[in-house]
Amino acid sequence: MTMFRLYTGQMKSDTPVYNANKEKEEKIGQILIMTGKEQAAVPEIFAGDIAAVAKLAVTSTGDTLTVKTNPVIFDPIVFPEPTLNMAIEPKSKGDEDKLSGALQRILEEDPTIKVEKNTETKQTILKSMGDTHVDIIIDKLSRKFGVDVVSREMRIPYRETIRGTVECEGKHKKQTGGHGQYGHVWIKFEPTDEGEFIFEENVFGGSVPRNYFPAVEKGLIEAMEEGVLAGYPVTNLKATLYDGSYHSVDSSEMAFKLAARLAFRKGVEMAKPVLLEPIMNVEIEVPEAYMGDIIGDLNSKRGRVMGMEPAGKKQVIKAQVPQGEMARYTIDLKSMTQGRGKFRMEFSHYEEVPAQNAEKIIEKARQEREEKDK
Questions:
Q1: How confident is the model at residue 83 (pLDDT cuts 50, 70, 90)?
Q2: Residue 244, Cα to own-chain centre: how many angstroms?
Q3: Exposed e or buried b for every residue in 309-332, given b needs 16+ CB within 10 A?
């Protein structure tokens, strides 16, 4: 069913119309007036009427239907940005493809929904306008498309880094019946603000042959995908390979890759590892009467108010808040402002998590890993 509003003229059943956005003709069948679930067929409608038709071929939300001789396109509807992020997954493991197809259909119907696959947390994130909106979508997925879905809070993409400088040895040595495996490196690890990862070599005298340098770098890059505190990716790390040894027969790229990983695990544990959290730039627009409540709530969420400015009869509060504290802010804001506030946010940067909060995050990650291992 496609619902539309007639702006000018009149329209009868079987009237040919032109989709000006898609530049294609559409055939209008029976015109229906909707009253709740009830449908009543009418022979014609007039300007100002809201009606529905079935089985349009190319028309989607926001398109303009007109006559081909005068293809007017109305300004598109400006839809609000979705602000509540929830992770969703099918109850049955085999329903991933079915869910993907169903979500595609729902996205065509409702432009206030966004869906993205987070490659880092391996979750499908449904972005909507609020908790009621999520309930409606999940109900529709079950009722209309036969996909039962569970929702849960999205995982926050934390990072890990180091605050100290250490020099660490990694040695991989294995003797088997034939050729053995031998890789031996000394690597200096230190924090850096110049990038996510910097690899340098400062080897003298051929203690590690040049052809093994890429293997050492690759081993470190792979090891950085999982940190030592809570298994989050490691960032802002500089590694300098400065010494080691090799065996003319038993050394291989794989052996040096594994040696680099061993050095990484030991080195990062010794180099004062810390947890980093994403900080979001948040703009909240509310009536002035609610300013005190909003600022007090932001302070309780470890937020920093950066400034305020008027926007007509409302005030805009600009703040920086940890993403982990904003998971259900759509619901909180609606409650505090009786639905009269709105906000938007975007990623700003990463900051170190306070010690007491870091302990909770690390413990939660440990429990999740234990459940996964079971």
A1: confident
A2: 41
A3: eeeeebbebebbbbbbbbeebbeb
* Domains contained in the chain, CATH given: 2-66 (2.40.30.10), 84-153 (3.30.70.870), 160-271 (3.30.230.10), 277-354 (3.30.70.240)
| DSSP-assigned letter for residue 191 | E
Q: Which residue, 342, 339, 347, is CA-closest to 81?
A: 342
Give 1's pLDDT tier (boundaries 50, 70, 90). confident
Helix pair 253-270, 213-223: axis angle to 10 deg = 50
Could you tell me the strand order of the sheet in which 84-90 lies? Answer: 114-118, 123-128, 84-90, 149-153
Tokens of 134: 């999520």
Q: 86 and 153 in contact (C-beta within 8 Å)?
A: yes
Compute CA distances 337 → 183, 319, 322, whole Å.
62, 18, 21
351 in Cβ contact with 276 (< 8 Å)? yes
Question: 177: pLDDT confidence band, cut at 50, 70 and 90?
Answer: low
Bridge-partner residues for 200, per DSSP?
Answer: 240
Strands 123-128 and 84-90: antiparallel
Q: What pLDDT, on a 0 to 100 scale, did the predictor assign at position 194?
A: 87
Residues 242-274 pLDDT 10s: 999 988 888 889 999 999 999 999 999 999 999
Contacts of 229 (CB under 8 A, 6+ apart): 160, 273, 274, 275, 358, 362
User: Among all chains, which residue has been given the structure tokens 């239907």?
Assistant: 65
Taking every pair of Cα atoms in the chain, the longest distance, rounded to a whole number of angstroms, is 92
